[in-house]
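This section describes the prediction task in plain terms. A model, or a person checking by hand, is given the sequence of a single protein chain and must write out its three-dimensional structure as a string of tokens. No templates, partner chains or ligands are provided. The sample shown here is typical of the held-out split.
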Amino acid sequence: MLCKKENHYCSHPFFIAISLLILCFILYGNCLQNAFLMDDYPMLIFNFHIGEAGFLQLNPQALEQQAYFRPLTHFINFMTFSLFDKEVYKYHLTNLFLFYLSGLAFYEFLNVLFKKPLLSFLTVILFYAHPINGVLVNYKNATAFSLMILAMNLSLMNFVRSKDREAFPWLAILWFVIALLCHEVVVVFPLYLMLTLLFLEERPKRIFLLCSPVVGILVVYLIFRLMYTATIGNITHQIATHSYSVVSYFATVSKLLWWYLEKLVIPKDIVLIWGTPVVTSGCWGWVALGVLLWGSGVLMLRHFRYLREIAFGAGLLLAGFVPVWLASFSRPWFGTIIEPHWVVYSSLGFFVILSACFLKVAHGFLNKKMLIAIFLCLFVFYSVETWGYNRLWSTQKGYCEYWARVSPYNYMPKYWLAIDFFERKNYKEAGEVFTKLLNSGLHTYDIYQNLGIIEYYQGNDEKALAYLNKSLEMGAHNADVYYYLGCVYMRSGESGRAKEAFHQAFVLDSTLVDSKRRLDLLNQSK
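The expected answer:
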């Protein structure tokens, strides 16, 4: 049995705050100088519309062109870029601090819920150390995701504390709204809340009172989403269009969830997005594994009076999987996908189960020193994997090559690898990767746009025009397409068309001063 002295340290606020902060810096200190990569460029560094109403999602008309509604995420990106510009370590420090606070808030939530400081402490240590959460620190434009986790944890903690006061938790509602405006996976929050209230053995009337405003806010949010963005409709349309059978649908989601569970247990080959084709053969095997997963979780929940912490962890694990059932089909050009940061509460549930099992053993078969040694070995194993994962994020080329190897059915790593070749002026390699994406069946305006720009730089004006015009046909409406069309026409001696293109580029993006300069040059040469 672990001694009371250890529990005393694990409940001391100063000890908890300082030790966890030091731990976070040890785990993520080697990533602070990692370069910008992938979405960091269009979302932050080269986003000329970052402070405009459309970017901040304050313009209803602009919302119709966007796939999601995350105004707080966009506002935070605007604030971090305004404050930090291209000083990369400041983004990492901000992410790391919010990640640290989110774990600290979960410690407090668990401690208030179960009154077991050591359980809470071990859970948060595993949460920090496991590489599956590394994206929250390494991805510069993911700052709002740690804020979302922090806000949900604070919301749950305030709901729990309201039990003693029998007061309505207005502060908890506020934190919930903040989380919801960061990311749509928060729609699962009512499940976390109901699970928490059930474990508190709240009266049904009290559960209804506390959950009803949360559900009401979600209903308003979903109606707004359906009116102004097309995400939900697009997902259901994709599922219907591809005529997935019920068995195939369940088998595919089951395969995604088992991949995630495998990475929790054996933290190797973790990626930002993992994809797989829709399962069409061997479906019943995957369905059986899915039934086993959900059945095991439900069985734990049924025995919550005897295995309270383990059952609560199982509830978080299963509830956290709910977004995957729809979100996995949200980007059909990726295949069916799972993103580990969608299911962070499943991770937290897993770490609660692991810590609870560890402490249960402390009362049984192994002595204290043996248990400490086992936990330290597990912690060191996770930490080494996290340090290695941090190094993978150091360059776009390195990460994308690793990502493409782990998730070969996902087009995104290949796309960003081609962009990296392009930025380093390796036009031949970039063109080859983009052409392979086209040949694989992926036809998007940005691929045609990039191929057009590549052909322009290689002096192939005819091919450049064909690709750029194809990009416009497919709905491209950005300044770069028109700018490079103008460049091609200007080099070909078609000054009239060049002027029109440069003018349109300048109208779409007045920060493209080169468009204005070339337009003035053409006007002067009349």
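For orientation: The chain has a mean pLDDT of 83.
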